[in-house]
Design brief:
- Keywords: Kinase, Membrane, Transferase, Transmembrane, Transmembrane helix.
- GO terms for molecular function: phosphorelay sensor kinase activity.
- InterPro entries: Bact_2-comp_sensor_kinase (IPR050640), HATPase_C_sf (IPR036890), Sig_transdc_His_kin_internal (IPR010559).
- This is Histidine kinase.
- The chain is of the alpha+beta class and about 350 residues long.
- It folds into two domains: about 150 residues, no CATH class; about 170 residues, Heat Shock Protein 90, CATH 3.30.565.
- The strands form two sheets. The chain has a five-stranded mixed β-sheet with strand order 2-4-5-7-6, with helices on one face.
- A hairpin with a 3-residue loop joins strand 4 and strand 5.
- It is rod-shaped.
Length: about 350
């Protein structure tokens, strides 16, 4: 924001508060505006009201924003309402009391030392009443804005899920994957019938998982790992020892992930990198600090790339941000490609 815009914003803010302060004084003591004797008191009263407007309005806005960064209206509405109400009213009362004390001492009292404490408290009653209205307005406004934003994000997620489901549907009938799988199966049938039977079962497991879970928002990590293991089994029949996948994730890890997210990352690594006797591809899946699920592979890009829409990783990023307010991390160095997915503590839909 440029200096001119900041100056203009502050000018408007101060002007609005001055107008509100003047309106309050006019409403409470209109006689001061129509007598010469009242002009001195009028200036003091407007200055008092203006100070209250600035301190109460600005302070309450700051507190509301500070609480908002820690407690969400959407996820914890009751807790947010209680915290907002207590914090804003407590601040308003203490601020009103302090301002009343300062102005009585400096402007309103002839003998400040003789003013009893109940006068300060009574003087703070009116600002506190205004603060109650202000608190109600800020709280209601915050809730409505959060609800509106949540509705927008939900609609956005719905659109992205449709896009994701379309991508998943295309991947289900991906002619390359299906052709390669059937081609490998053809060889296995003659070479190793037991392995061929296992291959058919794993292929069925892969497609069953996709069909069963593509509509869900999250799935248990253990189920996604089993799905990836089945997918990797099929790929290793094709690439043999040239594809090395290490999954170092405890089976009982109590966490959730987006369905097909790990498989997509493994598939991307296979799709975009050279896999050969001279340049085997190493893919690692492991946990980092019990907060992130890491998928890492050595980088050896193909000279000619298969077509990729690029929507997969972008879609995963958007869905993670919506579900958990956490961002995935993508690190692309000269030798490695790393994606870190935050672990989720949500219930499957």
């Amino acid at each position: 924001m440029t200096f001119k815009r900041k100056l203009r914003r502050w000018t408007i803010y101060l002007g609005v508060n001055l107008f509100i302060a003047t309106a309050i004084v006019f409403f409470l003591t209109p006689r001061l505006f129509f007598s010469i004797e009242g002009w001195r008191d009028l200036v003091d009263d407007i200055l008092y009201s203006f100070t209250l407007c600035l301190v109460l309005g600005g302070g309450n806005d700051f507190l509301n924003a500070w609480i908002g960064r820690r407690v969400s209206w959407i996820h914890h509405p009751t807790k947010r309402f209680i915290l907002n109400t207590i914090a804003l009213l407590t601040y308003s009362f203490l601020a009103s009391l302090l301002i009343a004390f300062i102005f009585i001492q400096l402007f309103f009292a002839n003998n400040p030392s003789e003013v009893p404490w109940h006068v300060y408290v009574e003087t703070a009653y009116l600002p506190l009443g205004i603060a109650v209205v202000l608190t109600f307005f800020i709280t209601s406004r915050g809730f409505l804005l959060s609800w509106r934003q949540a509705a927008i994000e939900a609609e956005k997620l719905k659109t992205e899920r449709v896009s994701s489901q379309y991508e998943s549907l295309k991947n289900q009938v991906n002619p390359h994957f299906l052709f390669n799988s059937l081609n490998a199966l053809t060889s296995l049938v003659y070479e190793d019938q037991d392995q061929a039977a296992k291959f058919i079962k794993k292929l069925a497991d892969v497609y069953r998982y996709v069909l069963d879970n593509q509509q869900k928002e999250v799935v248990p990590l253990s189920e996604e790992i089993r799905f990836v293991e089945a997918y990797v089994f099929l790929q290793k029949i094709r690439f043999e020892d040239n594809l090395q996948v290490s999954i170092q994730i405890p089976a009982d890890t109590p966490a959730m992930v987006l369905p097909l997210s790990l498989q997509m990352l493994v598939e991307n690594a296979i799709k975009h990198n050279i896999i050969s006797d001279d340049e085997p591809l190493h893919i690692q899946l492991y946990l980092e600090e019990d907060e992130f699920l890491v998928v890492k592979n050595n980088l050896q890009p193909k000279t000619s790339h298969e077509y990729s829409s690029g929507l997969g990783l972008k879609n995963i990023r958007s869905r993670y941000e919506y579900l958990s307010k956490k961002e995935i991390s993508v690190l692309n160095s000269e030798n490695e490609f790393i994606v870190k997915l935050p672990l989720l503590n949500l219930q499957p839909a």
